[in-house]
């Protein structure tokens, strides 16, 4: 996890630069440590190395403003460049929602299947083992779910976000994008949600969930 704390700082650096193709790993003139355009062969090699099943967790800030986590089962498949969470936990979206009935409905939605399409754009380490990529939701409605709870039928819909800015009294302190990083069989992915709709009641989330997994 120590490595990935560094990688998170790198991602914030990249975000602040608007994903320009300039490395923030080094301020030297060493060409081996700068971002280079990827060839189709590079991308194929990357997804092949990432492919497999992962032991992973979804991390989120709970109602006590503490980092919490939920175990999930996930995988990357090389044939379609998909990252899949097979048991995405809806309850990770309940912090910050004050309506107890709404929270109970979301929690009892259980789990859904979430898929991201991985689009590689950078290889930024000297050993060429550190990959950065966009992680874009496969479909807009993939986590839409209709289910029965407390004798009634309920429907949940989620809207994804292209970016989310966290603010403090000085303005935007960090900007998150739907992207990820991979290094030596460890992977992180940011999953961004804009709103959640429960039975027609739309609530703003502006929520960043953080996935970490290891093969």
Rounded average pLDDT: 83
Q: What's the β-strand tally?
A: 12
SS field, number of helical segments: 3
Taking the sheet with the most strands, its summary is: 8 strands, antiparallel, barrel
Spans of at least 5 consecutive residues whose pLDDT stays below 50 are: 1-29
Structural class: alpha+beta
Give the DSSP E fraction (strand runs of 2 or more residues): over 45%
This entry's quaternary arrangement is: single chain
Pattern of helices and strands = HHEEEHEEEEEEEEE
**Which strand order do you get reading across the main beta sheet?**
1-2-3-4-5-10-11-12
Helix content: 10-25%
Shape: globular
Distance between the termini: 14 Å
Query: What Rg is obtained from the alpha carbons, in whole angstroms?
Result: 18 Å
Question: Describe it for me?
Answer:
With 215 residues, the protein is α+β, with helices and mostly antiparallel strands. Helix content is 16%, strand content 50%. It contains 3 helices and 12 strands; from the N terminus they run H-H-E-E-E-H-E-E-E-E-E-E-E-E-E. It has helices at 2-16, 40-50, 100-107, and strands at residues 52-61, 67-77, 82-89, 111-123, 130-137, 145-149, 152-160, 164-168, 171-176, 179-183, 186-198, 201-214. The strands form 2 sheets. It has an 8-stranded antiparallel barrel with strand order 1-2-3-4-5-10-11-12. It is globular, with a radius of gyration of 18 Å. The two termini are 14 Å apart.
């Amino acid at each position: 996890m120590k490595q990935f704390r560094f990688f998170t700082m790198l991602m914030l650096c990249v975000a602040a630069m608007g994903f320009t193709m300039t490395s923030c790993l080094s301020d030297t003139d060493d060409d081996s440590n700068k971002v280079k355009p990827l060839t189709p062969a590079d991308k194929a090699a990357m997804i092949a190395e990432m492919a497999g099943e992962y032991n992973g967790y979804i991390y989120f800030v709970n109602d006590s403003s503490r980092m919490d986590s939920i175990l999930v089962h996930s995988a990357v498949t090389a044939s379609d460049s998909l990252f899949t969470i097979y048991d995405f936990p809806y309850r990770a979206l309940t912090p910050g929602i004050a309506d107890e009935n709404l929270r109970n409905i979301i929690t009892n939605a259980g789990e859904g299947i979430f898929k991201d399409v991985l689009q590689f754009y950078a290889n930024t380490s000297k050993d060429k083992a550190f990959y950065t990529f966009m992680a874009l939701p496969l479909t807009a409605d993939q986590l839409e779910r209709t289910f029965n709870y407390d004798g009634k039928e309920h429907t949940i819909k989620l809207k994804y976000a292209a970016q989310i800015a966290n603010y403090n009294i000085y303005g935007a302190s960090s900007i998150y994008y739907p992207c990820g990083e991979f290094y030596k069989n460890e992977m992180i992915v940011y999953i961004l949600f804009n709103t959640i709709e429960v039975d027609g009641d739309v609530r703003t989330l502006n929520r960043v969930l953080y996935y970490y997994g290891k093969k």
